[in-house]
């Protein structure tokens, strides 16, 4: 049981959720506070939105989830409030309540990698999201804005800042090329998926969903599902690409830019950690993640990686 069960109980009542037996704080990542709410009638997922401060962004996510529900996409659907709407206020921040999906984060293997690739391709192929043209929080424009912030940042990391500026310049040309676009999840990592017996039960946490190059989705998911000990596993990546390409064919230009976009996705994550945490305060966990991503991108850029052939070509 946690200290603020009283407030959680009051908010849950707004959704018709009563008889709370327990409210357990789940393992937290780099954003949000998540709880498993246990009641006599069943379980629910209670999320405090600590990263998304603007209610417009939270509404954007709720609209996406409602669209996904129409096509029966495997995710955790929102629980509506008794009086309508989905968002509530708490002392910690805005609150959303979802279905609780049983399962766990997956082991990284060919089964789980192929499974997420299949559903990701379905998501990227769906045309119903064109009315949600939000810009990606990871964007080359924001990288250049961040470089300007380095000059006045309260905390200075000269080696990281110098590396970040050079790598941003290096990636500018490939990420500026015109590629197929659509709505992407934007953060497909094992922590945002729930599996049971190797089968995807839910892709969750659509708060970073946006319209971007679909290759960005591919690059980000490869970062999440195809790296072992911070090194790209080519066999897992081949499984991912094969399964994805069976549903949404990857274009010739996308294949040519694949390695650049794997770098770009990791570089974009690095920019997120810097912007939201490290330049303003000391945080060993964030610094460790930044160094890990920096080393990952350096390996990708320096290594002579084999050419990946298009399936069926």
Can I get a quick summary?
The protein is of the alpha+beta class and 313 residues long. Helices cover 45% and strands 16% of the residues.
What does this structure look like?
The chain has about 325 residues and is an alpha+beta fold. Helices cover about 45% and strands about 15% of the residues. Strands 1-2-3-5-4 form a 5-stranded antiparallel beta sheet, with helices on one face. A two-stranded antiparallel sheet has the order 6-9. A two-stranded antiparallel ribbon has the order 7-8. The chain is globular. The model has no long low-confidence stretch (mean pLDDT about 90).
From the spread of the alpha carbons, the general shape counts as: globular
Count of spatially separate domains: 2
User: How far do the termini sit from each other?
Assistant: 57 Å
Number of strands: 11
- Poorly predicted regions are none
The CATH superfamily of the largest domain turns out to be Aminoglycoside phosphotransferase (APH), C-terminal lobe
- List SSEs in N-to-C order: HEEEHEEHHHEEEEHEEHHHH
Q: Give the second-level CATH assignment, the architecture of the largest domain.
A: Alpha-Beta Complex
Name the helicity range: 40-55%
């Amino acid at each position: 049981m946690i200290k603020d069960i009283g407030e959680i109980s009051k908010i849950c009542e707004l959704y018709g959720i009563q008889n709370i037996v327990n409210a357990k704080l789940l393992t937290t990542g780099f954003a949000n506070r998540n709880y498993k709410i246990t009641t006599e009638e069943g379980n629910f997922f209670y999320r405090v939105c600590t990263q998304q401060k603007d209610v417009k962004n939270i509404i954007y996510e709720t609209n996406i989830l409602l669209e996904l529900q129409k096509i029966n996409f495997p995710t955790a659907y929102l629980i509506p409030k008794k009086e309508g709407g989905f968002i509530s206020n708490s002392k910690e921040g805005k609150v959303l309540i979802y279905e609780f999906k049983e399962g766990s984060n997956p082991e990284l293997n060919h089964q789980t990698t192929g499974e997420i690739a299949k559903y990701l391709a379905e998501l990227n192929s769906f045309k119903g999201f064109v009315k949600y043209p939000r810009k990606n929080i990871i964007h080359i424009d924001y990288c250049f804005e961040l470089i300007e912030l380095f000059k006045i940042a309260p905390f200075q990391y000269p080696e990281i800042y110098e590396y970040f500026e050079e790598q941003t310049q290096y990636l500018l040309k490939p990420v500026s090329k015109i590629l197929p676009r659509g709505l992407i999840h934007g953060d497909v990592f094992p922590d945002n998926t729930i599996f049971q017996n190797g089968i995807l039960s839910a892709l969750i946490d659509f708060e970073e969903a946006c319209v971007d190059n679909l290759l960005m989705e591919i690059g980000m998911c490869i970062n999440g599902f195809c790296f072992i000990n911070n090194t790209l596993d080519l066999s897992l990546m081949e499984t991912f690409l094969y399964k994805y390409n069976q549903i949404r064919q990857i274009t010739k230009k996308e294949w040519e830019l694949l390695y650049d976009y794997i770098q770009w996705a990791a570089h974009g994550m690095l920019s997120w950690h810097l912007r939201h945490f490290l330049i303003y305060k000391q945080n060993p966990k964030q610094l460790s993640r930044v160094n890990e991503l920096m080393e990952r991108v350096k390996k990708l850029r320096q290594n002579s990686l084999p050419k990946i052939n298009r399936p069926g070509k």
